[in-house]
Each structure stands twice: as C-alpha cells, then as structure tokens.
C-alpha cells in the first residue's frame, strides 16, 4: 500500500512537471499574432485554457504509460500478465469528470460567444462582399467603396458580410474573430480595434484556385484620420 502511494506520488509530480513543459512547448509553437482588438482578451483566455487542458491530458496519459513501461518492466519474463477485470470506480470517474469538463467548456464558450456578438448601439457598420478572389467594402454612412478596409480605432465595428459567389471567410488573425460570408445572406462579425496599424485580411474558407491570394489590407487609423479619409472619399464620389 505504502509502495503504491509512493508510485502515485512520483507519477503526480511527473504529471505536474510534464503539464508545464507541454504547455510551454505548445505556447511557443502555436504563436498567436499580437492582439489588436478588445475581444482578444477573452478569446486568448479561452485558447490558453484549452492549451492547459491539452497539456494536462497529454501528461496524464504519457506519464502513466512511460512510468509503467519503465518502472514495472519485467526483464526476461514473457509469461502472461495478471488478468484484470476492469475497475468500476475508475470507469465512473473517467466518464463523469470529462463530462463535466466538456459541459464547463461548452458553457464558457457559449456565454463568451453571446457576449462578443451582442449588438452595440454605437457600432460603425461596414459592408464586406467576398468574391473570387477579392473583397469589396462599402461604408453605408459615407457611401465610400474601397478594396482596402479602413477602420477607426477604439470604435465598435460591425461587419455585414455577404458573398457574390461561393463561401468565403472574414479573418484578420490579430482580430481573433472569424466569420463566414455566405451567398444570399448577411452574416455579422463584431470587434473593436484598439491598436492603430496595418493588418492583412485573409479569406479563411477554401474558395477556389486563388483562395490563398484573397487578401486585403486593413488600416486601423485614429478617429481624426478616419474623418479625414471619409471626407476625401465623399469629395471623390462627388467629383
Ligand atoms: Cu477563400
């Protein structure tokens, strides 16, 4: 009994160490680009939580397996091992605990999704139409039509997406959120840019030969620059 406790004690310590190591490796490999919207906070938290869980589950399986292989090996003994007819308690635990973990993750993901897609009365609307293989943006407030997306910083944005032909997907990695654009319907994606800069909008839905080239520049500018840009667009339209 004391010996079993010692084995479990060592395995627990190894699992904790292995969890931290695997988390560190995954976190270094799955590099997220610098966040540039308000919504990145909760989304990155959710990513992090998943990576911790993945690291722990990997450690749990790998440590017990390697520990048993190394510590309980019987050199030269090729006879059958002891027959074990299952363990009721263990089976209940490893069914019930993952069930609750999955329900918990579903709960936090759903509440977060509802939160992030909640309409904001101050949101600035831009229409985006995807087509093979480019984007077209129209700004209902000013009537501007552009091939690059220009957005004011610190303003809640609602993109109304649609498609001219097949499925496309609006994705700026720094903005974290992602949404399909679908022919015949309007879908929405909301975010609040917080960092002035230039980003690349990528189509994230395989849409044909030049899918990987379906890029657009996204410029997040200050409120003053945005006003200026808008009046330039208006002046150009009136010419
Ligand atoms: Cu595409």
Brief summary of the model shown:
44% of the residues lie in helices and 23% in strands. The protein has 239 residues and is an alpha+beta fold.
Characteristic key phrases:
2 domains; alpha+beta; 5-stranded mixed β-sheet; binds copper (II) ion; 239 residues
Verbal overview:
The structure is a single chain. This protein has helices at about 1-30, 40-70, 90-115, 225-239; strands at about 125-130, 135-140, 145, 150, 155-165, 170, 180, 185-190, 195-205, 215-220. It is an alpha+beta fold and about 240 residues long. It folds into 2 domains: about 1-70 and about 90-115; about 125-239, Cupredoxins -  blue copper proteins (Immunoglobulin-like, Sandwich). Strand 2 and strand 3 form a beta hairpin. Helix 1 (about 1-30) packs across helix 2. The longest helix has about 30 residues, at about 40-70. It starts with a helix and ends with a helix. The mean pLDDT is about 90. Copper (II) ion binds near residues 168, 203, 207, 211 and 214.
